[in-house]
UniProtKB/TrEMBL annotation, chains A, B:
This is Diphosphomevalonate decarboxylase. It catalyses: (R)-5-diphosphomevalonate + ATP = isopentenyl diphosphate + ADP + phosphate + CO2. Pathway: Steroid biosynthesis; cholesterol biosynthesis. The keyword Nucleotide-binding applies. GO terms for cellular component: cytosol.
Amino acid sequence: EMQEEEQVRKITCCAPINIAIIKYWGKLCEVENLPLNSSFSITLNYHDLCTTTTVTTAPSYVKDQVYVNDLWQDINENPRLKVCFEEMRRLARKQAISENAAAKELMSCSKKIHVQSVNNFPTKAGLASSASGYAALTFALGQLLGVKGDLSGVARRGSGSACRSMCGGFVEWLKSEESKNSTAKQFVDETHWPELRVFILVVSSKQKSFGSTVGMQRSVETSALLKHRIENIVPHRIKVLKQAVLEKDFCLFAEICMKESNQLHAICMDTFPPLRYLNNVSEKIMNFVYSYNERCGSTRVAYTFDAGPNAFLFTLAPFAEDLANQIYQVFPPSKDCTDTFFKTTEEFSFPNGKIVPDVTDCGLIEYVICTKPGPGPQIV
Amino acid sequence: EMQEEEQVRKITCCAPINIAIIKYWGKLCEVENLPLNSSFSITLNYHDLCTTTTVTTAPSYVKDQVYVNDLWQDINENPRLKVCFEEMRRLARKQAISENAAAKELMSCSKKIHVQSVNNFPTKAGLASSASGYAALTFALGQLLGVKGDLSGVARRGSGSACRSMCGGFVEWLKSEESKNSTAKQFVDETHWPELRVFILVVSSKQKSFGSTVGMQRSVETSALLKHRIENIVPHRIKVLKQAVLEKDFCLFAEICMKESNQLHAICMDTFPPLRYLNNVSEKIMNFVYSYNERCGSTRVAYTFDAGPNAFLFTLAPFAEDLANQIYQVFPPSKDCTDTFFKTTEEFSFPNGKIVPDVTDCGLIEYVICTKPGPGPQIV
């Protein structure tokens, strides 16, 4: 009985999402998820948005099973899921062999695994659930199988941007023609710039955005500007961005951040037929950011958009409450959502209470999540 | 009395607008309107859209006077207007001197001129009235002063794209660092491709679009992609477009036409802060074009947009009536405009009569002008 109990193992981990400042757009290799350019991101606090994944082994298990938000996933029909299992087992075996492990331990690399994964945020809202999802899965399998070392290359095989969620804080994902070298590296950790705040504005949109994998592919095939961006613009921008982060130069950070977002969507427009990820509300948010900064006489907020209409706004702690109020004024919630509009652990006070201002456009934004940089995956 | 009569001279000319297929975006010199890249356009039939300009000299005139659509223009406050007068007089004097003209003729170069200019289309609708306006003025002054030779360089000084309206048919405007070499040349005349049809969809928009002069300037200063476009993409596209026009290859023409429009707006998005000339309706029109072609199983229609939300659609004569019907179905006029919706000299029959279809979005397009390539400026 004792032996039986020991053989049941269960580990729960959670992993954060990340938001790219220097954008990943274009693959060198579809299967390996090798990017055509390096990218740079900020990992967000997993208390606010994360995927929580539980992995279990038990003697009774006869095959691998994966459930995401209680929905069964067919591993054999999902090459990205499959490759994560295969890669993790390969690394476990390789490690066991190099450590001259006993036969029993080698055997354990092949034990069947059950996975339960849930997101604490809407999965289909375009909030990068594949990044946190594959980071959580990879990290959890690594814990279960006792695999040491950098696993970001495995997470990358599941979903490109997932590799960046394997590190906390400020992260660079390196481009390389070699799979083993295209990994994520922490630049500075999440405590480096404690004043930084992130507002995620979830834009109400029934329209499902065009998948980024297919979108990238079309850009690589048809955009006359993408190659130039990759070769001549991105390397310089990463260098300048790193300097801005190191020096906590918000003004420079904001400029690169917005220019990169704009250029991603310029490349999408230059794709044939063009890809349109931003909608009317996204444009209104961009205009709001420029006019807010202009009114303040300095750069206090920056936006970035990925392949969808939701906005990620950056600001600094002293300006966060005022920004929250301005968002509430300019993009008021629809009447039935005022209490759940701001999802935040910070204490913002709204001078006008919860009164919906006299604006005809209510409910353009569904809700706002207030967060900040956070650490990488954790055992919970 | 006879002498007095002879001294009153009056000439009326009209000049067409043109639509760029290869876009002009970026100036080498603001004052001279020298473009950073060559462009290629189609001059549209002046019967459908034109500026009509009457120039008069009389002994009683004591100063130059310009009226546009009955509004007085202060020449001294308008450097572009001023430069056209000065340049035309300079050319007239130069020609008179080289021809050893009599003193009387030399004097006539300095006679005061009155100008009356009217557009037969809405001036503020973003339909390039400055192109037809400066072409008409330059051409009319040339007729009045008897100036021979290519005047497109003078029209260019008034408004860059006006130089292309000095030629009929298919026109290239050459880039050059020398003012005298940056002129418009006819590639083939308006009879070359008689099947080509142009639909101008005037998008209802209260929003005044951001001026293209200031927009270009901002792109030149801030877009990281513009230089690459100018140096590496445009020259090749002009070459391929000329081939497509020569061979009347509509499919290739359409592809370059749409890609160029997309790239102009990509550059605008890459400008900091970004320039947004397309609106929701423009996007709907783009989607309409792609899905119409897809439904037809071949490329039957192409779009291009300048620095504004209005669409210019190209098609061929056999498909024009069906396209007109589809536009009527997908973008129905508001109820009070059904009779004036299509401005056309062609006879389109609408199988559904003038019944407004069951679509909630009526009046997104104010009206449609159907036209085709046409000749350059004319005396009327």
